[in-house]
TrEMBL record:
InterPro entries linked to this entry: TrmE/GcvT-like, YgfZ/GCV_T_CS, YgfZ/GcvT
Organism: Lysobacter yangpyeongensis
Keyword Transit peptide: yes
Keyword annotations: Transit peptide
Name of the molecule in the record: YgfZ/GcvT domain-containing protein
Coiled-coil features, chain-numbered ranges: none
Source taxon at top rank: Bacteria
Signal peptide as annotated in the record: none
UniProt xrefs under Gene3D superfamilies: 2.40.30.160, Probable tRNA modification gtpase trme, domain 1 (3.30.1360.120)
Length: 290
């Protein structure tokens, strides 16, 4: 890892909907490998990966970026989910493991639509004590995310909305509480982000995830849609007046109203609507996989 990456933060804005949960102790990596859906053993220290926590039925409780500083120190960068509640839920599965799990209320998260000063790909730049930088860039352009012990970045809803819209355009579902526990990794097309493993050992929901993959039963995935009015998670997406799928995430930015919907992968072309609002499907962008 590299030096403190705080320089060049003039264009930064706060991301208060992103919070950090820390896992530390002798068994931190072992606990994470047993609980989370991606393969931590293939992740080198000083790197990060997309991952998540599932119910025993293989439904996504929360999506996050998992940062591995070393075998005994991990961070979960969690958007949308309430960190204290999630940390407490994870703590119930510690049993005799030597690991402590806690929300880091002392850390601040900020973003900027600029090329990262130091981070590239899935490398973690910086140190936990002074601040770290991550490369959240993708095909649409550069993005920098920083996690800092203190931040002077302004709170700007417009820039936050642009950040969320960027995520949705690249297929990263931002799950509000109403959509937690509803969808499998395959239904959220998380293979596009390399966010889960079908080959690693047991973790909650692993049997369902692996069976769906190896038996070729992946029948639904996410589609990006746009409308001329606001869309809301939980609403039905209809094709030619008939139910087709459900919205799981939405974003409003610069006059554009975007949504991610879980829909059948094999579907005929037909006019799409949410309520009585016409919507249009857009291609998902690439480059956010890590």
């Amino acid at each position: 890892m590299h030096d403190n990456p705080q320089a060049g933060s003039a264009s930064a804005f706060s991301l208060p909907d992103h919070r950090v949960i820390a896992l530390w102790g002798r068994d931190a990596a072992t606990f994470a490998q047993a609980q989370f859906m991606n393969d931590l053993k293939v992740l080198a220290p000083g790197r990060w990966q997309w991952s998540g926590w599932l119910t025993p039925k293989g439904r996504v409780v929360a999506l996050f970026a998992l940062l591995k500083f070393d075998e005994e120190n991990l961070w979960l960068l969690v958007p949308d989910a309430e960190p204290v509640t999630l940390a407490a839920a994870l703590q119930r599965f510690v049993f005799r493991s030597k690991v402590t799990i806690a929300a880091r209320d002392d850390l601040r998260v900020e973003g900027a639509f600029v090329v990262p000063a130091l981070a590239r790909g899935n490398a973690v730049a910086g140190e936990p004590e002074t601040g770290i930088e991550l490369d959240f860039s993708a095909d649409e352009g550069p993005r920098t995310l920083r996690i800092l012990p203190a931040s002077t970045a302004s709170h700007d809803p417009m820039w936050m909305a642009r950040w969320t819209a960027f995520d949705l355009r690249h297929g990263l579902a931002r799950l509000p509480g109403t959509q937690s526990d509803h969808w499998t990794p395959q239904q959220l097309s998380l293979d596009r982000l390399n966010a889960f493993s079908v080959k690693k050992g047991c973790y909650p929901g692993q049997e369902i995830v692996a069976r769906t993959h190896f038996l070729g039963k992946v029948k639904r995935g996410v589609a990006l849609v746009e409308a001329n009015a606001a869309l809301h998670p939980g609403e039905d997406l209809k094709a030619a007046g008939e139910p087709l799928g459900h919205l799981v995430a939405s974003a409003d930015h610069d006059g554009r109203h975007l949504g991610l919907a879980v829909v059948p992968l094999d579907r005929a072309a037909a006019p799409l609507h949410v309520r009585d609002i016409e919507v249009h499907e857009l291609p998902l962008m690439e480059g956010l996989a890590r």
